[in-house]
Amino acid sequence: MADVSRHRSDITRHPDVTEMRERYARMLGARDVVFVDGPVLLTGLYFAISPWVIHFSGTRPDLTVNNLILGICVALLGVGLTTAPRRMYSLCWAMSAIGVWMIISPWVVTRFPDAGMIWNNVVVGAITCVLGLVAAGVLMRTGRETREA
After folding, report:
1. Residue 97 backbone zone (phi > 0: left; psi -120 to 50: alpha; other: beta)
2. pTM
3. Using CA atoms, how far apart are residues 99 and 97, in angstroms rounded to an integer?
């Protein structure tokens, strides 16, 4: 077996060390709100299956379709925030708007919603709206910092 410990060299002498450090800093700078990606994905997945969890999928198909489509959209935003964060953070405002729609949709989409539908949509919509605002706030802060630098 080869002894690789003898072949270590000091990286500070590498000719491209400054460029490598800058590239690494840029790469880490793209992950400012890493704590938002997972909750956004989980919130979207829950909202997509919520008609079956709360048991109104058979009685209110209009709200079922609404929740399924919006849940898939929010989950896709969560996946996009994970895979392409710089491109997707501009959609954080859209996620906040989706959260507001989630809150008001039981009264707009269906007639006479029951308490379970209302509570489900209001709580999950508020969480989605807050997550969108947090991600947008961090994006605005990092954008301001890069302009000042």
Report:
1. alpha
2. 0.76
3. 5
